[in-house]
Amino acid sequence: MPVLDTKLNVWTLAAVLTALYTLAGILKGWWRASLGKRRTIIKGYRRLAPFVRHEYVKALFGEPAWAHKQTAGVYDVDEQQRPVQKHTELTVRTWPLGTMGFLVTWCNEDDEVLMYGLTTCSRLLRPALYVGENKVRLGRTRLSALPPHFDRPWAMVGARRFSYAEEHFFGNPGGYQTWVVGVNDAGAPAEPPVGCDSWEPGELAAYRERAVINSVLVSGSVPIDLSTVLPYGIAPDYDRVRLLKLRSPARIHLSARWGAAVTSARSVLPRRWRRGSTE
Predict the structure, then answer these.
(1) pLDDT tens profile 255-279
(2) Helix 6-33 and helix 249-268, axial crossing angle in degrees, nearest 10
(3) pTM (2 d.p.)
(4) Sorting pLDDT into bands at 50, 70 and 90, what band is 89?
(5) Per DSSP, what are the bridge partners of residue 94?
(6) pLDDT tens, 176-204?
(7) Mean pLDDT for the chain?
(8) In terms of DSSP bridges, do strands 134-137 and 154-157 run parallel, antiparallel, or are they unpaired?
(9) pLDDT category, 16, cuts 50, 70, 90?
(10) If you write DSSP's letter for every residue of the chain in order, what string do you get?
(11) Average pLDDT rounded to a whole number, residues 81-94
């Protein structure tokens, strides 16, 4: 009768089971850090609306990484019912969505969300959103896909930064909300509006044909003078957020799981199979 080395079979089976367990953990971590995280972000964003409480947003996305005060213009009426413009201080909060993008909210003194915006920085975050009755895919749809009738565009190109934003309002069909879409240097892809200071009508149309929307800002029926915060207000302040060097959550998880798998394998396998063994 042939002699079977059962000891070797047991160790082989243990190594295979350890490898399968490690692979399952790696795949689970990759899902949570990439496609699963994207699903959570999009689901949470679609639950937002103007005038929700900041605590509600925090329950969906956790604590914001940045918060600062910014002055914005607001339209009002005086005692003679004449239109006047006042200035109010809003709280701007920013959430980094892993390495996929950023969420920004603008809140009043009562911590009600007056405006909120989403910026994509990754191919993994390409949500389908509605601008009025127009469906766009953030990070893929070009500006020319939206109606060409809008208020004057806001554009700026500086030595380090650039941004472009245009306002769309659809009245009652749009629930009297205002959508601001555009391109910001904090997102990707980002086509700078070169020469915007002296654009001709044809040059603006050409830019809208090639520029891809990477940021959207939604404002409720609040008489905010958007010209006091645009064009850079459409996305997070890049001078703030680019100071945070994020690593991919999937890469971090894979590195940790790989290190744990190597340590576990070295403790399970026979001594003669370990690297560097002279036995």
Answers:
(1) 666 677 777 666 665 555 555 444 4
(2) 170
(3) 0.76
(4) very high
(5) 66, 104
(6) 899 999 999 999 999 999 988 888 878 99
(7) 83
(8) unpaired
(9) confident
(10) -PPP-HHHHHHHHHHHHHHHHHHHHHHHHHHHHTHHHHHHHHHHHTT--TT-BHHHHHHHH-S-SEEEEEEEEEEEE-TTS-EEEEEEEEEEEEEEETTTEEEEEEE-TT-BEEEEEEEE-STT---EEEETTEEEETTTSBGGGS-S--SPPEEEE-SS-EEEEEEEE-SGGGTT-EEEEEEETTSSS----TTGGG--HHHHHHHHHHPBP-EEEEE-S--EEGGGTTTGGGS--HHHHTTS-PPPHHHHHHHHHHHHHHHHHHHHS-GGGSTT---
(11) 82
Task: Show the tokens assigned to 279.
Answer: 């036995």
* pLDDT (0 to 100) of residue 278: 45
Dist CA 274 CA 270 (whole Å) = 7
At residue 158's C-alpha, the angle toward residues 152 and 164, to 5°, is 30
Residues 6 or more apart whose CB falls under 8 angstroms from that of 265 comprise: 15, 18, 19
The residue type of 87 is: H
